[in-house]
């Protein structure tokens, strides 16, 4: 170490901190995390053994709520969250500081997706099609084979035919409900 820069990286290991480099890293991390989590989520749901003994714990929540976002079997948390985080971190090339922001943001987004409240003007709902209503459909009894995507985009659901459209309908007793077209829950 020279020049008294103890702890500072050399110029060959210093990460670019331009806004464009950080934005690129965040977008790459979002796509990688979404891809990883879609396939893990779908696999855990369709493998009868893994669903019964691992993923079913999360699906005990038919009506999602905020604290249920991370309610899962420890093995599922390790496979889906920990390994998914590592893969997206490694592929995107994020600095540790950018990673802290990204994983905090994705955790908050995941909690919002499971909160069961579709608030007008919610910035997550304005920026992402994958939102509270979208994931509520997956947790409903007839929606389990659909809307696996988490936490940002719906591209894999659309590409692989697991996208279930929905409409927001006003409840008689107040509030709103995400409902799929009747054709989806007649076939199940």
UniProtKB/TrEMBL annotation:
Keywords: Membrane, Transmembrane, Transmembrane helix
GO biological process, alphabetically ordered: lipid biosynthetic process
Molecular functions (GO terms): iron ion binding; oxidoreductase activity
Residue intervals of the Fatty acid hydroxylase domain: 27-162
GO cellular component, one term: membrane
Superkingdom of source: Eukaryota
Annotated compartments: Membrane
Listed InterPro entries: Fatty_acid_hydroxylase (IPR006694), Sterol_Desaturase_Related (IPR050307)
PANTHER family in the cross-refs: STEROL DESATURASE (PTHR11863)
Similarity comment text for this entry: Belongs to the sterol desaturase family.
Official protein name in the record: Fatty acid hydroxylase
């Amino acid at each position: 170490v020279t020049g008294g820069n103890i702890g500072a990286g050399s110029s060959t290991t210093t990460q670019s901190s331009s806004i464009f480099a950080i934005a690129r890293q965040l977008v790459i991390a979002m796509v990688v995390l979404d891809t990883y989590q879609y396939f893990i989520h779908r696999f855990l749901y369709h493998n009868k053994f893994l669903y019964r003994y691992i993923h079913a714990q999360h699906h005990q929540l038919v009506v999602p709520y905020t604290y249920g976002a991370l309610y899962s079997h420890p093995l599922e948390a390790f496979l889906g969250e920990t390994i998914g985080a590592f893969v997206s971190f490694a592929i995107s090339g994020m600095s540790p500081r950018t990673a802290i922001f990204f994983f905090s943001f994705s955790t908050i987004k995941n909690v919002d997706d499971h909160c069961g409240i579709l608030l007008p003007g919610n910035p997550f709902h304005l920026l992402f099609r994958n939102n509270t209503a979208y994931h509520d459909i997956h947790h409903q009894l007839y929606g389990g084979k659909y809307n696996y995507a988490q936490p940002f985009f719906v591209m894999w659901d659309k590409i692989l035919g697991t996208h279930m459209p929905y409409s927001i309908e006003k409840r008689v007793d107040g509030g709103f409900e995400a409902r799929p077209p009747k054709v989806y829950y007649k076939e199940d």
